[in-house]
Amino acid sequence: MEGKVRVEQDATLTFESGVVCDGPNAEETIDAQGGVVLPGFIDSHTHLVFAGNRANELEMRANGKTYQEIAANGGGIMSTVKETRAATEQELLELGLKHLTWCLRNGTTTIEAKSGYGLDLETEVHILLALHHVDAAFCESIQDTAGSRVIPTFLGLHALAPEFVNRQKYVDYIVEEVLKVVAGAKLAQYVDAFIETGYFTPEDATKLATKAKELGLGVRLHVDQLSDGGGAKLAATLGATTADHLEQTSQAGIQALADAGVIPVLLPASVFGLGLTKYPDARAMIDVGLPVVLATDFNPGSSPTPSIPFVMALATRYMKMTPAECLAAVTVNAANSLGLTDRGQLVAGQKADFSVWPLKDWCEVMQWIDGPRPSQVWANGVRVN
Ligand SMILES: [Zn+2]
Q1: For ligand 1, a single-atom ion, which residues have Cβ within 5 Å?
Q2: 67-76, 203-212, 268-277: least confidently modelled range
Q3: Which of 114, 215, 295, 306 has the fewest Cβ atoms surrounding its Cβ within 10 A?
């Protein structure tokens, strides 16, 4: 179904039965009541589907326990893996839909979503299938026949599965067994790996990325989050689409991203969520011409927020990004990082994805911290919140 939308100067939106922004040919009119209208946000790094929560860890942290101590006591990512493995595919679907509504409420209308809380074939497939079903349900509700509202990434190398002692054997299992099933059934568009001391090495990521490319999948990587492990250069060498996190990346690493055309996806809410102080050097990235992307890293542990406005609020305070740079980072640049050219801007020919805010100035969306929510959210010309 094709349709048309007009954004009038008095902030009145006009559209015709869904889908495509257009100018004077639109038929239906929405009263934005003098508010601010922005493109639907594109959150290009989330861990949307997981079971359980980590609320019990707040008290442990208040009592001085470190992230590592909490993990050693059965908390952290392994507690989420345990609960996710115990959930049925239907339960995972319902959790995914619940989390999707949290994103929509904050003005997000397209999401990249990673698996990685299964760490075995059965659960990884369950999570990826749940993501497909969340996408299908959302697309059906907004009559978007093109799909691609929840874009799945196979995060096979997120942590060492508890039943493996030998990391190398686990990497071989993921690359040789699980990835083949995932690619064969077209369950993911990208692969991902967490490259960090104590997790996975550049050699592990190279194995995964090489096989993924053979199988026709793209590569996104978690790199340089807690230490500068040369992850940016690795992402450049592997021809990754994105390098995500980059809190510790050196200037040479930033230049390598620029030279190779790898898109940086920055996740300031994870820095905040871990109580850390070193944010990624967005200014240096923008200065070498990189199209910086901001995303939530929504997950139950390090970054428990679905809020793009909160992420922009952090980026304006701690990363010296201007409001305009922040807005581009969660709309047009984020769309680019997912290969999407039909959304992210309020111009003729784009999908009618937009939010209406009860504010006078669009900069207020990131000026207020955990402030107003959009009064209306539309995806494909259909109101979703
Ligand atoms: Zn992440």
Answers
A1: 297
A2: 67-76
A3: 215
State the pLDDT at residue 212.
98
Distance 34 CA to ligand 1 centre (A): 37
CA of 334 to the centre of ligand 1 (A): 15
CA 190 – CA 217 distance, rounded (Å): 5
Q: How far is the CA of 7 from the centre of ligand 1 (A)?
A: 35
Query: What is the 346 CA–ligand 1 centroid distance (Å)?
Result: 28
CA of residue 216 to ligand 1 center, whole Å: 22
Using left for φ > 0, alpha for ψ between -120 and 50, and beta otherwise, residue 230 falls in left
20: β partners: 4, 351
Residue 13 has a pLDDT of 41
Quick: pLDDT tens for 306-319. 999 999 999 999 99
Q: How remote is the CA of residue 220 from the centroid of ligand 1, in Å?
A: 10
Q: What whole-number distance in Å separates Cα of residue 38 and Cα of residue 283?
A: 24
Q: What is the pTM of this model?
A: 0.93
